[in-house]
């Protein structure tokens, strides 16, 4: 063995819960490989109790996050985009390894992800104007509708698109004031792990985004049946009808808002529209007497 | 001392310690500050590092499935549901009393809490709601929480609470007098309040957060037990730190040793800062290991808490339904 051979630093990543990086409560981890099957790192395999802890952290963060001004939330998301820009090479590398993309293709994905975040950040103080407003009523009342965040949202992130898809499902949930627990792509968790490192060093308060790596079969049923989760986005199990049905049934117990799994993973590069922004909003309507 | 104790395992008990040859009555010991001081300071010192390590190691026991179900139900039965705020209203006390009788309205198998703990002026309101449900009313008397008042005021406070129907009185000791070494004064106050209690049970609060050392906690425990307290209680909940595992461990050792020495059983009540089922179960493990299974009963061990009950109920629901519950499904208090 020659003296100039450097030993690899074999990384074992952890979860991101409540702004901290805890190990999985189970102590389990799994091997993450690149698209060619070569070892890249170990990632934590989140258990049902990690999901419970993450929901607790998200619930704790919800009140203060939802009561921030929309403008402030937009600024914070914009700051996340800035930090992603700083870490561009790391994200490009993570996308290359995870998705087997060429350098040029991976760079484009990172660009699009950052742009997507900036785009959603801009929506923070505009969404109320678009989906809320004054309603015409036949009486001496002002009648005003405003959107309010649903609460704690469990997000099953896409399996294929590990960065652009992740940003496209997380940003619209938190920009409107929800907090979330994200179960990442099982095979491709690296971009999500890097994203959690960005979140930890940004101004996003701990607990607003909680990131769980590992098998969906361990965390998804817990998240779907948890009575303190207000909504669930099943995008990450696109095409798996049996699991989707099972999760929808569990979610029905506390009347969770469910965003159903699509038949196949969507093309994330197209214009996202406001669909995901409005999916996890509740409309509050206020009647107020006029005059006297 | 001519009369020796009736301790069951005399000779096999602790080798040192002032209680080995405790008289049947404490007449000699409690005669003066000097004699009390001699006795209390003759108690073996608490090994602080050892006590903390023991408490921490007992906290790592894994209690699962049926044992956990049993522990949670037991903990619910041990809760003294407490509200001690300046802003307490009759409505709040009524709501709390209803909750103590039927903690989980969705589940009739859920046991009731042990007692409702309120200020003396709220005793009548609580009693009215609780009726003959078996849930006790505890009142904090004697110038709670500081204990800074003349003795006749403390006794009047106690009388008021007992007349209003309190089943249990939680008194605070005069920490200033205790720390200054005026043990006789503290002893006499406890005795006087115990008399004023009549049939009501007396819990003696030490406010361990203000006693500075574990040695003082051990001394206060013995002082209160000799004065006839039915329960010894860690804290008022108004001072940080409130109940901790090591402090409760020292108190549990004291009640165990007191029973060995005198045959009398005294209860223990940690209060303040116990918020999760996990914490509560750690305490129960400690009760079983230190004092013994005899204390695993609401008559001999209580939790002074308010938020703890909701967490116990959520855990209980989780065990029964298999899904994690949330605070949306239980009352705010």
Description:
The complex is a heterodimer of chains A (292) and B (333). Chain A has a single domain, classed as Aldehyde Dehydrogenase, Chain A, domain 1, CATH 3.40.605.10. Chain A contains 10 helices and 10 strands. Chain A has helices at 48-67, 70-86, 88-99, 103-123, 127-131, 164-175, 190-201, 216-225, 241-251, 275-279; strands at 29-33, 39-44, 133-134, 141-149, 152-156, 179-183, 209-212, 231-233, 257-259, 281-289. In chain A, helix 7 (190-201) links the parallel strand 6 (179-183) and strand 7. Chain B is an alpha/beta fold and 333 residues long. Chain B has one domain (39-58, 77-321): Aldolase class I (TIM Barrel). Chain B contains 12 helices and 8 strands. In chain B, strand 1 (79-82), helix 4 (90-101) and strand 2 form a beta-alpha-beta unit. The N and C termini of chain B lie far apart (53 Å). Classes of the chains: A alpha/beta (292), B alpha/beta (333).
Question: Notable features of this structure?
Answer:
heterodimer; A: 292 residues; alpha/beta; Aldehyde Dehydrogenase, Chain A, domain 1; five-stranded parallel β-sheet; three-stranded antiparallel β-sheet; 43% helix; B: 333 residues; TIM Barrel; eight-stranded parallel β-sheet; 12 helices; 10% strand; globular; disordered N terminus
User: How many DSSP H or I helices of chain B?
Assistant: 12
> Radius of gyration of chain A, Cα only, in angstroms?
20 Å
CATH topology of chain A: Aldehyde Dehydrogenase, Chain A, domain 1
Number of structurally distinct domains of chain A: 1
Number of helices of chain A: 10
CATH superfamily of chain B: Aldolase class I
Shape of chain A: globular
| Cα-based radius of gyration of chain B, to the nearest Å | 20 Å
H/E topology pattern of chain B: HHHEHEHEHEHHEHEHEHEH
Most extensive interface, chain pair and sizes: A-B, 12 and 8 residues
């Amino acid at each position: 063995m020659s003296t100039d051979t450097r030993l690899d630093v074999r990384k074992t990543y952890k979860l991101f819960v409540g702004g901290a990086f805890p190990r999985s409560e189970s102590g389990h981890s799994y091997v993450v490989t690149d698209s060619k099957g070569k070892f890249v790192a170990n990632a934590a395999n989140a258990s049902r109790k990690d999901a419970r802890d993450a929901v607790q952290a998200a619930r704790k963060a919800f009140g203060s996050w939802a009561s921030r001004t929309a403008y402030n939330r937009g600024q914070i998301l914009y700051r996340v985009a800035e930090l992603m820009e700083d870490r561009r090479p790391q994200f490009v590398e993570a996308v290359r390894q995870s998705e087997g993309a060429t350098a040029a293709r991976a760079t484009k994905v990172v660009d699009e992800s950052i742009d997507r975040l900036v785009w959603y950040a801009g929506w923070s103080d505009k969404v109320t104007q678009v989906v809320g407003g004054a309603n015409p009523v036949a009486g001496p009342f002002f009648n005003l509708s405003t959107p309010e965040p649903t609460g704690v949202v469990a997000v099953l992130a896409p399996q294929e698109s590990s960065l652009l898809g992740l940003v496209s499902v997380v940003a619209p949930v938190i920009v409107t004031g929800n907090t979330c627990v994200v179960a990442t792509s099982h095979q491709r968790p690296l971009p999500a792990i890097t994203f959690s490192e960005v979140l930890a060093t940004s101004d996003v308060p701990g607990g607003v985004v909680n990131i769980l790596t590992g098998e969906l079969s361990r965390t998804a049923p817990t998240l779907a049946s948890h009575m303190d989760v207000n909504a669930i986005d099943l995008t990450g199990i696109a095409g798996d009808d049996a699991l989707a049905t099972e999760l929808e049934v569990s979610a029905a117990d506390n009347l969770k808002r469910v965003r159903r799994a699509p038949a196949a993973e969507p093309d994330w590069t197209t214009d996202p529209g406001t669909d995901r922004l409005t999916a996890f909003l509740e409309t509050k309507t206020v009647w107020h007497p006029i005059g006297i | 001392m001519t009369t020796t104790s009736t301790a069951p395992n005399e000779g096999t008990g602790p080798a040192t310690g002032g209680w080995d040859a405790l008289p049947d009555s404490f007449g000699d010991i409690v005669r003066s500050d000097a004699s009390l001081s001699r006795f209390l300071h003759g108690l073996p010192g608490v090994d602080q590092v050892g006590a903390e390590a023991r408490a921490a190691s007992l906290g790592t026991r894994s209690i699962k499935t049926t044992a956990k179900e049993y522990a949670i139900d037991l903990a619910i039965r041990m809760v003294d549901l407490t509200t001690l705020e300046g802003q307490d209203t009759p409505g709040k006390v009524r709501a709390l009393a209803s909750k103590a009788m039927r903690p989980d309205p969705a589940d009739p198998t859920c046991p009731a809490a042990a007692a409702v703990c309120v200020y003396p002026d709220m005793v009548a309101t609580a009693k009215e709601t609780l009726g003959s449900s078996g849930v006790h009313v505890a009142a904090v008397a004697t110038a709670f929480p500081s204990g800074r008042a003349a003795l006749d005021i403390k006794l009047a406070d106690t009388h008021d609470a007992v007349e209003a129907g309190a089943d249990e009185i939680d008194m605070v000791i005069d920490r200033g007098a205790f720390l200054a070494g005026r043990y006789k004064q503290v002893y006499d106050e406890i005795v006087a309040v115990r008399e004023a209690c009549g049939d009501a049970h007396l819990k003696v609060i030490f406010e361990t957060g203000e006693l500075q050392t574990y040695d003082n906690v051990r001394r206060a425990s013995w002082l209160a037990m000799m004065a006839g307290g039915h329960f010894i209680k860690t804290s008022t909940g108004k001072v940080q730190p409130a109940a901790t595992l090591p402090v409760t461990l020292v108190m549990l050792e004291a009640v165990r040793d007191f029973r060995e020495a005198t045959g009398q059983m005294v209860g223990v009540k940690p209060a303040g800062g116990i918020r999760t089922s996990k914490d509560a179960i750690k305490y129960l493990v400690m009760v079983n290991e230190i004092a013994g299974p005899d204390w695993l009963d609401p008559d001999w061990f209580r939790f002074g808490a308010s938020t703890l009950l909701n967490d116990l109920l959520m855990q209980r629901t989780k065990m029964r339904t298999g899904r994690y519950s949330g605070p949306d499904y239980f009352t705010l208090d």
